[in-house]
Amino acid sequence: MPMKAELKSLGRETVIYGLSTIVARLLNFLLLPFYTHFLAPAELGVVATIFAYIAFLNIVFQYGIDQAYLRFAAGRDEEEKSVVFSTALIALAATSLALGGTLHLFADALAGPLGLRPEHAPLLRYSAWILALDAMAIVPFASLRLHHRAWTYVGVKSLNIVSNVALNIVLIAGFGLGVRGVFGASLFAAAVSFFLVAPEVSRWFQARLCVERLKLMLRFSLPLVPAGVGAMMVQVIDRPLMLRLTDEATVGVYQANYRLGIFMLLVVNMFDQAWRPFFLERAEEKGSSTLFAKVLTLFVALAGWTALALALFLPDLIRFSINGKALIDPRYWGGMGVIPVILAAYVLHGMYINFLASVTIAKRTDLLVWVTGLGAVVNVAANLLLIPRLGMIGAAWATFMAYGAMAGALFWMGRRVYPIPYDFPRLAGVFLALLGGVALVKILPLLLLPGAIAWFAIRAFGLLVSLGLLWAVVRPTLKDGLGASTESSELLP
Which string of DSSP letters, residue by residue, matches 400-413? Predict the structure, then answer.
């Protein structure tokens, strides 16, 4: 296939996978208002905590075997692909059934050590088989990606989400099952996915386990597990720790408001989808490092302004009334203070993604294990220190500090293996422009008469002023360099 056609194919699949991820997150977000009206904060706290454990256990159940399958099946003939597929699936099925069965049998004994009450043990049993079914589906999903069947992949994932959302509504609102309805819906959705990828299994599977292939695959996949655990700790360890240090209701309120940061996460994910192929394709071009530096400046400006806009106006969305009911139930409004901190944390996460260019181009991704490990340590330590003093706000700041530590460490390591001349004076100008908007919003209410209309106008004015200041800061960047790469606009979130 000609290079131009290959790049077009890559671009098309990137768009398909990227849009499907966005749609999936938005569909899942629809459950948040539903949960806040039908589940008490304590119930949502239990759900959040158990799903945090599921996120960790997913890494253990799957142990990177899908990545190993892609590594050893890519470019091979059909017979070899079948051997690799079968070996991976048999190994994964054996470990998933063993781990799932163990978790099911010892659910009662594990509930207490995990910070849960005895009546929550059945939820761990649901979780055991959610984990097992999800794990056994990852190799067929990887096969769909390997064979460029993007639409089939997206279709199955979409049906999983739609069935999950629909069954949540039926089981919770219709049958009043509460938290058991959440896990019952997830288990059914996992079974739907496994059933829908069965044709891929029948196409490639043969009852044959190649021990030598398995050894090679495990040598490749198992080193991925520590980095995965570290990254996951940054994302979800705060819920189990908060449950230990506070109570279920606090975790539930925190979870609802944390999830509202999804809008900023979507911006970062959209940028990530475009950024990785962008810098890899241009790594060998003259002046590419200067271009990458300008991308960081523009990203921080756009992402920072988006985070500011969301922080100022998300409270209005939360209180927005439909038929006399607020979008988010008032029981959860007490946690809105975490939203600006989480939004800012996602901006730091976006900077971390920018800094990935250096270690990726230099083929030093082994450094990421240390970076994610640092993030995990900072997050755990900060949570243990701040939650007893500040409650859920402390957990939000711990997440902010962890992403900041990861971004700082990756920048420091990256500059030694592939220096990029970031424009720090201009980046400082971007931060000052954003702080200027925040300062106006804080100061003007002290000088003007209070009122809903006045408060809305003040926030809008502060946002527009910060936008004007940002334009003044980044305009030279646009004039100086990005015009040389007409494709750079694809990176704008």
Answer: HHHHHHHHHHHHHH
